[in-house]
Amino acid sequence: MENAAPGALPNPLREGLVEERMPEPATMVIFGASGDLARRKLLPALYSLTRDRLLPSRFAVLGFGRHAQDDEAFRDEMRRGCEEFARRRPVDAAVWSAFARNLFYQQGAYDDPAAFQRLKTRLDEIDRTLGLPGNRVFYLSTPPSTFAPIIRSLGQAQLAPRPAPGRPFARVIIEKPFGVDLDTARALNRQVHEILDERQIYRIDHYLGKETVQNLLVFRFANGIFEPIWNNHFIDHVQITGSETVGVEGRGGYFEQAGILRDMVQNHLLQVLSLAAMEPPIAFEADGVRDEKLKVLKALRQIPAGDFDRQVIRAQYGAGSIAGRAVPGYRAEPAVDPRSTTETFVALKIFIDSWRWAGVPFYLRSGKRLPKRVTEIAIVFKEAPHLLFGKRADSIRPNVLSIRIQPDEGIALNFGSKLPGPAMEVAPVSMEFRYGSSFGVEPPEAYERLLLDCLLGDGTLFTRADEVEASWTWVSRIHRRWAEETASGDMRLPEYPAGTWGPDEADRMMAADGRSWRLP
User: Fold this and answer.
1) pLDDT digits (tens, 9 = 90+) for 404-434
2) Quick check: is 268 catalytic?
3) What's this model's pTM, rounded to 2 decimal places?
4) Choice among 237, 268, 386, 479 that is catalytic
């Protein structure tokens, strides 16, 4: 058991907790603590973990940012964030009081070596005051251009020593985007590895912290009825959708440089695809899972030049209506070039060259200003080999297993059933599992799970350097082809009205294969 220390959080009623899953006492340093992510996601996640008694009693948070404020002002701002965004609301006054005593703030510039020496002094002081052993997690909630300078400064200040027996741990969480193409991702990996061991690096993708993404592994590998049919003998095709109703939300300058392929597909959707398509790992541990995901990414077939326009559709939203509200087109958004060629929608037809998935197309689509916010994996099974019901068979549809990642996390299986009555009439029905109704609790926020895993030293749900480079290897070829089309004047960029499911070209891509997009 831990010894009480000054400023320690209350730790009542720990019965039932699995002790080996309790992290060691530590301090988390959040670079960019005055930004939106810290207020909306990170501090609310840490507060919820504290309220659920999943953090050690000796745990501190030190915010680091350019803006001047003292500890009390930082605590007040973070409380407002928790009151608005924490899963566990309303804020419990007693839990918050103890939690807030261990919240601190340090002003400094990311490129100032002296600021990192002051940071080291402050961390040592917090360790002494709270009786902490010197374990640290550094969260880089900052612009990508600062990632390498911050990590270099951590090394120069001796704040991130490489792992060694008996030495306190130092881990670094890096937000996306990790590079903007293959070359920049490789360069950033080299820069980071000059200071850190790969085991210290936690490249975060919040999609992997979502409960249904994790449940995908349990669903596949803990149930004997699904894994035998999870292959090209039984599955016709797979659809993965990541749609948003919002536009660029004041981030036009960023999105002009990113586009939906970088912003959503390279990280989120390819990670989801790799989990859906991977082979069973030797063990459910970080490298075992990530080794199998890497094999999927390396097996992605490069799109032949002659099939490029049939397998890659990009488009841009125009003016339209979302939930009855008129919205402008992308080129009319603030900070967007009126002649922009940045894609806000992409649809892809992908093949995985492996024994399990030979011949099975994976259709991916992601876009902004679509009718519904949803992320879903749909496994569409082959039709029964022989239908016995004559003309009535026209109403029979393929079985679909849909895995909803957000919102309303859950899993549904659609199949045909006889309608009540004397006639042999078949109608589609659905068996559904929903987290809220089945377990009676709201699933944890993604950042709760990922922050806890980092504190535990579990990298299973974080991406490894070779995964990042493998995904960029595949995506960068599409970007190069688009750049060539732009340079030659042969670029095609359809427009779709805001509030629709994308351009007609995406529907025609599916229709050419005798298939259609699901309506999630």
Assistant:
1) 988 888 889 887 777 677 766 777 777 888 8
2) yes
3) 0.90
4) 268
